Amino acid sequence: MPDQPYHHGDLRRTLLEAAAESIESDGVDALSLRQLARDAGVSHAAPSRHFRDKQALLDALAEDGFRRMSAALDAAIDTDATTADAVRARFDALARAYVGFALAQPTLLSLMFGLKHAPDARDELLAAGHASMEITLRVVAAAQDAGAIAPGDPQHIALVAFATFHGIATLASGGLLDGVPSDELVSSAVDVFWRGLQP
């Protein structure tokens, strides 16, 4: 059956979603624009209207991953938080949302951060990557404003928190937690982290 023009839907979004699935199942090296085109039922040239080559697709995939991650983090903390208990619950929700996103798509997460820290990273990708850190920073600043944690450089605290969540997710996705459930480790990490920040 010959390839048909893509007359419906959003081909760019279709290709990004298919690419995200492909890298989780077969790895980044196996990703093929031609195969994605075949799977979408379009001509092999159709994806070039959106991505000039495989690297452009990977860059877009990483940027889209950061945007989706930020949306997941925002949704997790979408509550008013003015009491100590509420800001603590928000911090816990943020940690769980990050680890949950990371464990659902570990190859994408690795791609996201790998491309973000590449010397030639695109400005759009850097901006999307920084947005997720800004969410963590907001949670930390709100906790300080509520008096739930001690004063200090919120940027530094947010970076340490983010690194903690990322480390748990990386170890869990690699099966390196010696059988400890990731949820349990997240709870323990949040407890230790929070106690260390008490006024």
List keywords for this structure.
199 residues; mainly alpha; Arc Repressor Mutant, subunit A; Tetracycline Repressor, domain 2; 2 domains; 8 helices; 69% helix; disordered N terminus
Mean pLDDT: 90
What is the number of domains?
2
According to CATH, what is the class of the largest domain? Answer: Mainly Alpha
Outline the low-pLDDT stretches: 1-6
Provide structural commentary.
By secondary structure, the chain is mainly α. The longest helix has 23 residues, at 54-76. Mean pLDDT is 90; it is low at 1-6. α6 packs across α7 (154-173). The chain contains 8 helices and no strands. It folds into 2 domains: 1-52, Homeodomain-like (Arc Repressor Mutant, subunit A), CATH 1.10.10.60; 61-196, Tetracycline Repressor, domain 2 (Orthogonal Bundle).
State the gist of this model.
This protein is mainly α. It has eight helices and no strands.
Describe how the helices and strands are arranged.
Blueprint: H1 11-26, H2 33-40, H3 54-76, H4 84-104, H5 106-116, H6 123-145, H7 154-173, H8 182-196
